[in-house]
Design brief:
The complex is a heterodimer of chains A (113) and B (114). With 113 residues, chain A is an all-beta fold. Chain A is built from no helices and eleven strands. In chain A, the strands form two sheets. In chain A, strands 2, 4, 5, 9, 10 and 11 form a six-stranded mixed sheet that branches. Chain A has a five-stranded antiparallel sheet with strand order 1-3-8-7-6, with no helix packed on it. In chain B, the strands form two sheets. In chain B, strands 2, 4, 5, 6, 9, 10 and 11 form a seven-stranded mixed sheet that branches. Chain B is mainly beta. The radius of gyration of chain B is 13 Å and the shape is globular. Classes of the chains: A mainly beta (113), B mainly beta (114).
Chain lengths: 113, 114
């Protein structure tokens, strides 16, 4: 099935560093969502973006909905060990597809203390 | 706990057997989704319900797969004559009806077909 292009695939960083990851699509989305998934668990919603150009923060996390509606990025500032996990972007189209999500392949984040 | 609940968390079955998974959504959510996730990939959409009506099915949902939501509350996903390729994490999510809605996921059911 269709998936978004998410990069990088993995990141190895030191505690305290900032992290940036992004997602691009060939299709327009009305909503962008960012999730974090721990091994053996379901994805947990971090941030939701609803308008092109929107910049939203949730604690140390900041995400933006691209102007073209075909991309989004997520930044994590001052990373800590518990940030370890897999981060997924997800796009939601409009019309009859409301609610159905298309996911990226994920970014595996490793934080060294 | 008012989150999305899935049961069982893990299922090991022999090839050819039938399996059924259950999902209990967040109580006020009208929409319920099933996704499948294989190792190293993001979740892929399988099907979704609005109340008891199944409104969309992915081409990933072969004839061996069937999903129901008989009373618009909990849902079941059944896989008949399981194959090794069915091994995956099966995720359920729910959301409200509307334009700007957020989907919340359960913890998933990990299926291993041996």
């Amino acid at each position: 099935g269709q998936q978004l292009n998410q990069s990088p695939q993995s990141m190895f960083i030191q505690e305290g560093e900032d992290v940036s990851m992004n997602c691009t699509s060939s299709s327009i989305f009305n909503t962008w969502l960012w999730y974090k998934q721990d091994p053996g668990e379901g994805p947990v919603l971090l941030i939701a973006l609803y308008k092109a150009g929107e910049l939203t923060s949730n604690g140390r996390l900041t995400a933006q909905f691209g102007i073209t509606r075909k991309d989004s990025f997520l930044n994590i500032s001052a990373s800590i060990p518990s940030d370890v996990g897999i981060y997924f972007c997800a796009g939601q189209a409009g019309g009859t597809s409301y609610g159905k999500l298309t996911f990226g392949q994920g970014t595996i984040l490793t934080v060294h203390p | 706990d008012t989150g999305v609940s899935q049961d069982p968390r893990h299922k090991i079955t022999k090839r050819g057997q039938n399996v059924t998974f259950r999902c209990d959504p967040i109580s006020e959510h009208n929409r319920l989704y099933w996704y499948r996730q294989t190792l190293g990939q993001g979740p892929e959409f399988l099907t979704y319900f609005q109340n008891e009506a199944q409104l969309e099915k992915s081409r990933l949902l072969s004839d061996r797969f069937s999903a129901e939501r008989p009373k618009g509350s909990f849902s079941t996903l059944e896989i008949q004559r399981t194959e090794q390729g069915d091994s995956a994490m099966y995720l359920c999510a729910s959301s409200r009806t509307g334009v700007n809605t957020e989907a919340f996921f359960g913890q998933g059911t990990r299926l291993t077909v041996v």
